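Provenance and format

Records in this collection were gathered into a single text stream. Each protein contributes a sequence line and a C-alpha cell line. The two records reproduced below are adjacent in the stream.
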Amino acid sequence: MEVIKGLKYSENHEWVRVENGRAVIGLTDFAQEEFGIIVFVELPEEGEVLQAGEPFGSMESVKTVTELYAPVSGKVVSVNPKLTENPGVINLSPYGQGWMIVVEMSDPAELDRLWEADKYEQTYVHE
C-alpha cells in the first residue's frame, strides 16, 4: 500500500495535496484497497461550500457504502469528471487520475489538523 510523503491525510482516509493554494482531495490507497472495487461515487457540484469534518459525498464499492468527509473547508472549484463514467479510476490511480475534488480553501490553517504521511502509515497501514 502506498502512502505518499508531502500529502496530508485525514482519519477518514482522504488525502490532500495543496496546489496553488487549493486543496486537491482524493481517497487513500489504503482505503480503496479496503473497500474493494469502487462502483459509484457521489460528489458535490462545483460552487458548493464544504465544512471540514462534514460529509461531502459518498462512495459505493462491492463491499460497502461509505460517506466521504471534507478534510478542509472551502468552495468546490472542480470535480473529477472521469469518476462519473468510471469510478474504478480511484482503484487504479488513487493519488493521480482518481482525485475527487478541488477546493478553494477558506481556512488553510485547517491543514495543520491533518496527519503527515508517517502518522497515517503508522496508524492504518502498519497495524
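Adjacent record:
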Amino acid sequence: MKDFVDGTAFNAEQGNRARKLFAAVVLAALDDAISDDKKYGNGPEQIARWARSRDGREVLSCAGIDPNERVVSGLMDFVSKGVRTSVALSREESERRNAAAQAEAA
C-alpha cells in the first residue's frame, strides 16, 4: 500500500499556516502603531488608516479577520491602551490557564 497525503488536508494545513503568517503581520502593525502612539501620539489614527487601506483590508482578510468598522475601532482601542501584543497575549494565556486551574480545583 502506498503512503500518500490527502490533498485537502495538505491544502487546509497550508491555509492555516498562511492565516497565521498574516495574523503575525497584523500583530506587527499593532506594535508599530503602539510605538507611534508613544512617540507621536497618533497610534490609533495610524492603525485605523492602515486597516482601512487596501493593503490593510487584504492582510486582515487573509488573517481571517473581517475588515469592518467594528474591527477598526477595536484595533484603535487596543492601540490606545498601549500594551504590546506579546504582553497582551501572554497575559491572556496566563489568565486562561489560571481560570482553568481554578475550575479544576472546584
